[in-house]
Amino acid sequence: MVVRFAPSPTGPLHIGGVRTALYNYLLAKKHGGKFILRIEDTDQVRFVPGAEEYIMNALEWCGIRVDYGVREGGPAAPYRQSERSDIYERYAQTLLASGNAYLAFDSAESLDDTRKKAEAAGNHGWQYNYKTRMEMENSFTLSPEVVKSRKEAGESYVIRLNVPENREVHFFDLIRGEIIVHTSQIDDKVLMKSDGLPTYHLANIIDDHLMHVTHVIRGEEWLPSAPLHILLYEAFEWTPPSFAHLPLILRPDGNGKLSKRDGDRLGVPVFPLDWTDPVSGEKTSGFRESGYLPDALVNFVVLLGWNPGNDEEVMTQERMSDLFDIERIGKSGTKFDIDKLHWFNQTYLKEKPEESFLDFVKEFLLKNGFNTNFSDAYLLKAIRLMKERVVLVKDFVVKAPYLFKEPEYDEAFLTKQWNENGKKNLIALSSHWESFPSEKWHTETLQPDFHEWITTNSIPNKFILPQLRLALTGVSGGPDSIAIADLLGKNETISRLARLIAHA
Ligand code: GLU
Q1: Beta bridge partners of 5
Q2: Among the four residues 3, 175, 234, 460, which has the most C-beta atoms within 10 Å?
Q3: What is the domain-level CATH number for residue 428?
Q4: Ligand 1 atom showing the smallest separation from residue 20 Cα
Q5: 156: domain range?
Q6: Helices and strands, number each (H, E), in the chain
Q7: Are residues 128 and 162 in the same domain?
Q8: Do 480 and 493 share a domain, yes or no?
Q9: Measured from the CB, is residue 40 less than 6 Å from ligand 1?
Q10: Are residues 266 and 377 in the same domain?
Q11: 115-164: pLDDT as tens digits
Q12: Which pLDDT belongs to residue 449?
């Protein structure tokens, strides 16, 4: 089994692309096959600098390992289509020689004109096909001498596929079953553009053949192109690979394809890594920088359209590839369920050692203007304190900024809880803690001592617990206040009490 992921470097990799790559990769892994990453960059107009690099880094972050590709090399190198122009040119010539392709000289203006005229006559969706080609300027309608001289005069032309007249194209899609399309529905697609570069269709088929691709697994947006591809295989007299067209990933409400705009609206990324548009400078945040774990994301993504046939959900990559099969990929689109994604992230996060979050937390603190001179021991303790409460890695800071800077008092909490009784008790607690031995400043000793202090002084909980939390964190809810005091240390704790006491 040889599979490939063949993105065009027109922008960052969307979550749908991650899924396509993943399914290909898992199948190769399962069958001991090869996974190719081919960069389809023949469309110079849509080329976006940095996108290729981004795609490779994103796959790497997801743990999707490429066997043959631009970085890896391989038996059919190069794997970047812009470096394979001579190959496409050669094969285009064989199609011309066998009569399966022809030259067309129609200018963009004349094509436009023809389309407009057809429209005016009520014929919408005019196509360059076997019904109309005899009215156009091509090697069917021009004599070989004229074709030759126009070529020699440097006139620009394209090479089009000679779609056979009036027959059915049959092929089998592993997800959708038998598909039949009549050739009257297929236009004489341009195979080579006037700039001498191939279109997607030609380059894609030639490369899949030369790279011995056995299974083409790609998004359903390519399904309409598949009959054309079958015709190309026929024209070359090559055996086509097996096809599987994956259903769309839908918006959470099920209405249409999940877009970057939906992601922005819902506050969830749709790209693996941060991306800065090289032209507009617009920044889009990725799953990685937003605090998602790659194995959680991959586990979530694998279930967007496929199921293992049982209720297994949390799976290692090994397990996924053992269980993966095309038969269990659904035909209809799958909704992107954010809660499920968060559940996966939280589940994976709980299993990871605290150390694995250190770098992320440090970088997050730095990027977000926090003090960065915390020791690793302090950060690990903070991470441990929050571990059961976070969903995203950034939540270690976002949900508990007070562990890394002075608290900001929540207005509602302050108004509700800051009163004379509380203040009096906080002053008393502060002086009690002043004389508390520093070397015993640990939850294990602080906790019983604190309760004893409350009891001895008959202090009602409601006049000390919320006020202590307010002083230490500024907000209601969060980890145990004494555990926070332990983390902050004696000096910082007492200074936070003093700060609230001094508050009007
Ligand atoms: N270059 C196409 C894309 O960007 C590849 C489609 C295919 O896999 O055949 O999606």
Answers
A1: 37
A2: 3
A3: 1.10.10.350
A4: 8
A5: 86-192
A6: 20, 14
A7: yes
A8: yes
A9: yes
A10: no
A11: 999 999 999 999 999 999 999 999 999 999 999 999 999 999 999 999 99
A12: 98
pTM over 0.70: yes
Query: Residue 30: is its pLDDT beyond 90?
Result: yes
Q: Is residue 483 part of a domain?
A: yes
Q: What is the pLDDT of residue 75?
A: 98
Spatial distance between the Cα atoms of 83 and 106, rounded to a whole number of angstroms: 28
Which residues are CB-contacts of 175 (< 8 A; sequence separation ≥ 6)?
A: 244, 245, 246, 247, 326, 329, 330, 331
Residue-level pLDDT at 251:
92
Whole-angstrom Cα distance, residue 440 to residue 449?
11
Assess whether 495 and 401 both reside in one domain: yes
Residue 310 lies in a domain: yes
- The reply to whether ligand 1 has any atom less than 6 angstroms from the CB of 106 is no
Task: State the SS3 of 129-197.
Answer: CCCCHHHCCECCCCCHHHHHHHHHCCCCCEEEECCCCCCEEEEEECCCEEEEEEHHHCCCCEEECCCCC
Give dist(CA 365, CA 369) in Å, integer: 6
pLDDT in tens, 326-337: 999 999 999 999
Residues 408 and 499 in one domain: yes
CA of 154 to the centre of ligand 1 (A): 32
Question: What per-residue confidence (pLDDT) applies to 254?
Answer: 87
The CATH number linked to 101 is 3.90.800.10
Pocket test for ligand 1, best of 8, 38, 221 (most atoms within 8 A of CB): 8
Q: What is the pLDDT of residue 477?
A: 94
Last residue of a domain, one of 315, 330, 353: 353
The answer to whether residues 401 and 484 belong to one domain is: yes
Question: 42: closest CA among 90, 9, 76?
Answer: 9
Does the CB atom of residue 222 touch ligand 1 within 6 A?
A: yes
pLDDT digits (tens, 9 = 90+) for 63-74: 999 999 999 999
